[in-house]
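Lab notebook page, bench 4
Experiment: in silico fold of construct C2
Operator: M.H.
Input chain length: 121 residues
Purpose: comparison with the prior construct
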Amino acid sequence: MSGVSNEPVLTLIDPEPLFLVDIWLDAVVRANPFSKARKPSIRLWIDFGSGIGKHKSSAQIINHCTPETLAGQRGVDVVDLPPRQTGPARSEVLAIGVHDAEGAVVLLKPEGKAPNSARVP
C-alpha cells in the first residue's frame, strides 16, 4: 500500500484532536465476503450496543480473517466519521487495524470484559 510506513513519526503533535475522535468497542454479528469491492474485502455487520446500535462496514482484512472467524469477534471502530461509499456498499464506521510486515491489515481487538458499548477514553 503506497504511503504506508512502519517507521515511527518523530514529530510531536498536539493530542487534543485525537481526543475528539469517537472510538468504541464492538461485536461483529455477521460477516460476508465482499466480492464487488475493487480489492478483496469482508463486509461487516457490527453491533455497538444500545447507545449506538448496529452499523455496517467493510475492511480489507482477508489475509488474517475469514467471515466465519469474524462472527462473534470484538473490534475497535471510529464511529464519528461521515459514511464512505466503497463500491456498491456504504461503510458507516471505520474498523481500526494495523499493517503487518507484508502490508496486510490486522484488526485491533480488545481484551478483557469491557462491554461492546464501551467508549475508548
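Observations: Residues 16-19 form the longest helix (4 residues). Strands lie at 23-34, 41-47, 54-59, 74-78, 84-86, 89-91, 94-95, 97-99, 105-107.
Next step: discuss at group meeting.
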